[in-house]
Amino acid sequence: MAAPAAPATAGRIALRHRLADRGMDRTLLLLVPAVVFIVALFIYPFVYGLQLSFQPQPGSETVQRYGSGPFADYHAFFADSYLRNTIWTTLKLSLPAGLFNVIASVPIAYRMRGKFRGKRTITTILVVPITLGTVLTAEGLLAFMGPTGWLNRLLIDVGIVDHPVRFTHNYWGVLFSLIISGFPFAFLLTLSYLSGIDPTLERAAATLGAGWWQRFRFITLPLLAPGLAITFCLTFVLAFSVFPSAVMVGDPSGTTRVISIAAFHAAFEQYDYSMASAIAMIMGAVELIVVGLVLGWRASLYRGASGGKG
Amino acid sequence: MSAAIATERKGLALRPGAWLVWGAVVFFLLILAGVVGAVVVDSFGTRWFSGWLPSGWTSRWYGKTWHEFDLGNVLVVTLEVAVAVVVVSLVVGVPAAYALARRTFPGKRVLMVAFMLPILIPPITYGVPLATVLYKFHLAGKLSGVILANLVPAVPFVILVMTPFIEQIDPKIESAARMCGARTRVIFTRILGPLLIPGMLAAAVLILVRTVGMFELTFLTAGSDSQTLVVALYYSVSAAGIRAQQEIDAMAVIYTLFMLVLLVVALRFVNPTQLVTQIKERD
């Protein structure tokens, strides 16, 4: 018995050594809790939701109208213009908000990239709206930009308008809230990308006689572009999932009925979890398409040394 | 002195671009001050229908909102959720970050992508299926469900923050300790532990702030007695009309103060540009 056992042990040790050579040893056991966690609370719900979205809920409106085939919920979503239009409503809010945040932060960050007194104060103040979150921003916008708020009062007293301008409970209110909570984030990211660009490159261009516009257009901007693509993606993702502000300062049944409201409505007001999962999947797909397009464009850009670390 | 000021003025006057940029910054900060200021002023006013300021001042709204919304309880729930999320996410995340920082193994890239997805996908997208699963197992609507849901972005965040932090600790220190006869457990408690504390503190504070501010996941999974402050605020706003606007604003001010205290504590440990480099590493 002892003779056959010896090679087996040797084989086991060899396997263990072979695995250790590739970095597989007992240290990897430390990963187990995190892997179990991510599988149980992220991957399983996601797969469950995906599978649920192909099984229309019996007795739901979808089944009565479009049958119980696997794609009935998706069919229902795209056939109903009230649901289908939520995609455009969301894109109409999140694309301008993302673009504005990125484009506005470029000149400001360009001006502030050097060292000056009070820079730390300004960056600290700009972190505040990130921590306040959308709920408080929306509440503040209602008070500040409402019909009797300070902004309308100022506009009337100065004589720019005769009647209060409607800033809240419409498209603009939501856009403002997205800019207030998204701009500081985009600005801080752009600033850190800009400070990663070697300033001597611009000076070299200046000695060759390039004006500030040429220096910005042909030196800084190409190096900054990959970083801007990432910044855009992150602010876009934040704006795309807008939910509380679309309800609070928006017009949740009309012009700002974004896709997350539709998903929430299906899940917790109609209790049609299949439809809600289908909407969540469509939401994820649309978002990943936009992010994929931007990242695809980014892949075609120069990303070498002294770039904005993008 | 006056000559220096004059040249400085001239320098500024020569650049309309600089004025435009600084004007935009001041404009943004003014709007920000207006948004926060309007809420604070209203919460202390007796009545404010017209005019620049309320007709009188009072602090009774704070007492009223505290009792009517049972804010003491809400604050306790908020802290319970936040502390539980911080502790569990550190216990689960730090060992994983250690393994990811020290070993390269087949499938590591796939694992990294799986850990990054909950941060890149917006909460509502995975929150709806997650809430469905939690309701299926009768966990949603309770404190445990809220904690579990909030852990989903928190654990990847710990891994994201801690992996580069552990990478920059020299592995020779561990080898030296091992050579001196330290066992694995001793290495973790006596050698790595103290070295990791600054990183763990930074991660803990950031998660605390994120969890207190996290609306979507808590909103999708909370029941009536497991609401956090931000969800209670949302409900009070969307059910406005029953209660005085000032009460809601008082609640918003309490929330702001709560966040501000956390922020001040956070900024003692983390610097805001560090926040950005951490975000940058998501790429």
Automatic annotation (TrEMBL), chain A:
Any GO BP: transmembrane transport
Subcellular location(s) per record: Cell membrane
Residue ranges annotated for the ABC transmembrane type-1 domain, each copy included: 87-294
Keywords: Cell membrane, Membrane, Transmembrane, Transmembrane helix, Transport
One Gene Ontology cellular component annotation held by this UniProt entry: plasma membrane
InterPro entries attached to this UniProt entry: MetI-like (IPR000515), MetI-like_sf (IPR035906)
Transmembrane segments: 28-47, 93-110, 122-145, 171-194, 223-243, 275-297
SUPFAM superfamilies: MetI-like
Signal peptide (from-to): none
Record carries keyword Transmembrane helix: yes
Membrane topology: Multi-pass membrane protein
PANTHER family: INNER MEMBRANE ABC TRANSPORTER PERMEASE PROTEIN YDCU-RELATED, INNER MEMBRANE ABC TRANSPORTER PERMEASE PROTEIN YDCU-RELATED-RELATED
Family the entry assigns: Belongs to the binding-protein-dependent transport system permease family. CysTW subfamily.
Protein's name according to its UniProt entry: ABC transporter permease
Annotated organism of origin: Actinoallomurus iriomotensis
Lineage summary: Bacteria, Bacillati, Actinomycetota, Actinomycetes, Streptosporangiales
Automatic annotation (TrEMBL), chain B:
Key words of the record: Cell inner membrane, Cell membrane, Membrane, Transmembrane, Transmembrane helix, Transport
SUPFAM superfamilies for the chain: MetI-like (SSF161098)
PROSITE patterns: ABC_TM1
Main location: membrane
Keyword Transferase part of the UniProt annotation: no
Entry keyword Cell membrane: yes
Highest rank taxon of the organism: Bacteria
Domain ABC transmembrane type-1: 75-266
Subcellular location: Cell inner membrane; Cell membrane
Gene Ontology CC: one annotated term: plasma membrane
Membrane topology: Multi-pass membrane protein
Segments crossing the lipid bilayer: 19-41, 74-98, 110-135, 147-166, 187-209, 252-270
Gene Ontology terms describing biological process: transmembrane transport
InterPro entries listed in its UniProt record: MetI-like, MetI-like_sf
Listed PANTHER family: INNER MEMBRANE ABC TRANSPORTER PERMEASE PROTEIN YDCV
Stated family: Belongs to the binding-protein-dependent transport system permease family.
Name this protein carries in UniProt: Spermidine/putrescine ABC transporter permease
